[in-house]
């Protein structure tokens, strides 16, 4: 079954607001170089704005972190709605999209994970809240909390491995390829056994 391309729609670049450009720059530096490199000066330079322009939108690095985590929350909430309304079903959608494809949600998750490794407990909370949303929608779909947790752990494992092997989608793994689709079909057949 082909992958729902709506999740990959975020790959198309469009003109964005200064605030979004600043968050994009912060996210990119976090992913590429780590939190220590994500200084206000570096973020402003990457976004092509003055430091004063950055401070107009985000008064401090903590405010920038809060903005990034709010972005993650918004993207996760939208993802939960896509999971809930997926034509092939919630489990199918979750598993097929549990790979790092470089989407805005993927980038926000990886950036939050970078922040969680530092002195930002709010990043851990944001990631936890996202997982709880996913768990709730899967439990709603399968009707069993233990099976829902097992499915979410499979999703976590798929994502973790794809993020490690392929931090940037251009490195070779295409989640929409026929081979990947066949692998996902086999995995979903195994998961279907849990649902019986």
UniProtKB/TrEMBL annotation:
Any idea which UniProt keywords this protein has? DNA-binding
What Gene Ontology terms describe what this protein does at the molecular function level?
Answer: DNA-binding transcription factor activity; transcription cis-regulatory region binding
Spans traversing the lipid bilayer: none
Say which domain of life the source belongs to. Answer: Bacteria
- InterPro entries in the record: Homeodomain-like_sf, HTH-type_TetR-like_transc_reg, HTH_TetR, TetR_CgmR_C
- Where's DNA bound on this chain? 39-58
Which parts of the sequence belong to the HTH tetR-type domain?
Answer: 16-76
What is the protein name stated in its UniProt record? DNA-binding transcriptional regulator, AcrR family
Which organism is this entry from?
Microterricola viridarii
